[in-house]
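BUG: 3D viewer hangs when loading the predicted structure for this chain

Environment: internal workstation, default settings.
Expected: structure renders.
Actual: progress bar stalls at 90%.

Input used:
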Amino acid sequence: MKSVYKNILLIISLVISTSCVDIERYEDGRISYDEIFQNDKKTAGYLNRCYSYLEAFGTQYPGSTMLAAYCDESHDTNDVLHGAASNWQKGQLTPYYNPIENGYELWGHYWGGIHYCNVFLDNIDEANLRSELDRNSWRAQAYALRAFYYLQLIKRFGAVPIATKPYDKNFDYTQLKKNTFAECAQQILSDCDKALEATDEELMWRAGNAENDKGKFSKAVVHAIRSQTALYAASPLWKDGDFGWKEAAKITKESLDACLAHGYELFRHQPAGNQGYSPYDLYFLTPMEVTGGNDRETIYETGGRMNLYRYHGLPIVNGFERVGISPSQELIDAYETIDGKQPILGYKDANHLNPIINAEATLYDESKPYINRDPRLMASIYYNGSRHNLNDPNSFVWTQVGGNCGIKPYSSMNTRTGYYLRKYTHFESNKNANKDGIFKLYRLAELYLNAAEAINEATEGDVAPKEAVDAINSVRSRVGMKALPMGISKDDFRKRVRNERRVELAFEEHRFFDVRRWNILDQTDKVVTGMKAENLGGTIKYTRFAVDNNRKAYSDKYLRLPIPGDEVIRLKKLTGINFQNPGWN
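Structure tokens produced before the viewer hung:
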């Protein structure tokens, strides 16, 4: 979106705060809301302000790290520099210090976005505009943005108060209450429904017709918000009302079908020449075009090209500064063999050093652990012996002892686990030319997996429904993975869809929230291991080892972020209610 119109003044306090003052004209040029909404340009500028709370997801966390560093997907090598992700894993999160935040407070940030949307929606109907199409389009976008900000809030903090009007100076704060998660979800879905009331001309199915439109919400974005909201509201951690799996199944299926009916499809273009291994590989390097173009899967992407070669790169790359995240052995263990078998079924010990190997996974070889694996492993992770520059037959990543990218236990310049991030990275990226990918916030594959999970959970039988199996197989077919069989049990399918999300959506900010909504955080986030490779006379020996077996961010209180302490105190004074999340008092 274009930069925000600079002369807009926020007078009313940010939704849940302390005080308000009258709106008037000031000598320095600031103007009242009445004047803002009497002009097309200023009204459009205020909508831009509503958009301004959208972050560039991906590497926006402290130290340019990824959310993967805060869950079991990876280990952050900035721990040697006392990085924020390391502080998180040490259990240093408090109501007064949140290691995930990077320069702004998440709670206040999203409430700020909600406030601007509330002001906009409160004024748009009476705004003096020349075009009713603009009015309806902008109204729909504001409803979608408010839904998005509320979803970001409840994913992180759980149930929150619902505010759909800007609070004036006479607001009675004793009326304020903490709504249930189900009520919050219903409010989000209601906003989505209002956005979808716009015609396809008023709110298009893609961002627009020109590059200027990039960043605008579309009807597909609204359906992505609907789908994720419904999935979360029915999930074990968040279910606290009448909203259940049947409602989630209906909504996730509706949203998937709507996007499919309007031209969205999985990216299946084969890489030309040596530009990648598979469509999955190439997809994350392909920028979204506002009209679809080659990429008809992406629903919304944020920011520009990520500087992964620099902050999550390889020691052999020109311009590399640090490794950033080192993918975990636990993640590598999640990738199936190419015949659809899960090679690792769990672990015999708390440190994950003795895996339970699936006897049916005959293609898995502990001495050659990366062959015959799901192609998404090769596309997402650099491991010992991975090709680097695909145009150079002699370019390899060697993480083995003495290798060009070997493990160093006390350095931010080398892997800590034996693995490096490959997803989103381009082998030709360096300080002279960045070809890395752009973060895909919403994409069609997620909608397939949302529907697969919800439809399976909603069934009253013991067998996974055909619709659910078809949805997950659509995603698997893109990389040539064997289809899950019809007749698979509901319980077995639950395990498979959870694992499918883990590999398909790796490093896309889903795992952090998935293990919470499934309420399995204490099963996943206690330990991270790696793989040491040694060349012993031409034979590579692989040995698992513990990288961090003293993680502390897995108890029940970590299922939700704490509301900032000062805000809790203010709310308690205004309402008499303690709004703080469990465990953070």
